[in-house]
Write a structure and sequence with these properties.
Helix content is 18%, strand content 23%. It is built from 2 helices and 5 strands, in the order ββααβββ. With 91 residues, it is α+β, with helices and mostly antiparallel strands. It has a single domain, classed as Roll (Ubiquitin-like (UB roll)), CATH 3.10.20.30. Strands 2-1-5-3-4 form a 5-stranded mixed β-sheet, covered by helices on one side.
């Protein structure tokens, strides 16, 4: 069973308007690479030139923020749900 990735609306133009993507990945880093292989160009929206997640993005694995786990090295297991959530700011 693959990992389920929830794609936010602003990024769905890169995923052929798919809100959920399934793929095999053992870590968040592998997931990012897998997304890039399926949807070329999406990784540039998620990561900076050094491959680190952009500051305005939050990624959750089963509702746990990866900043409190192992960041991009966070391990994934079959059936995990990964949410990509753009940060919201305003006043």
């Amino acid at each position: 069973m693959p990992v389920q990735v929830l794609i936010p609306t602003p990024l769905q133009k890169f995923t052929n308007d798919e809100a959920t993507v399934s793929l095999e990945a053992a870590s968040v880093d592998q997931l990012l690479q897998g997304l890039e292989e399926l949807f070329p160009g999406i990784k540039a929206r998620l990561c900076d030139e050094n491959g680190k997640l952009r500051r305005f993005l939050n990624i959750y694995v089963n509702s746990e923020d990866i900043r409190f786990l192992d960041h991009q090295s966070t391990a994934l297991a079959d059936g995990d749900e990964v949410s990509i959530v753009p940060a919201v700011a305003g006043g």
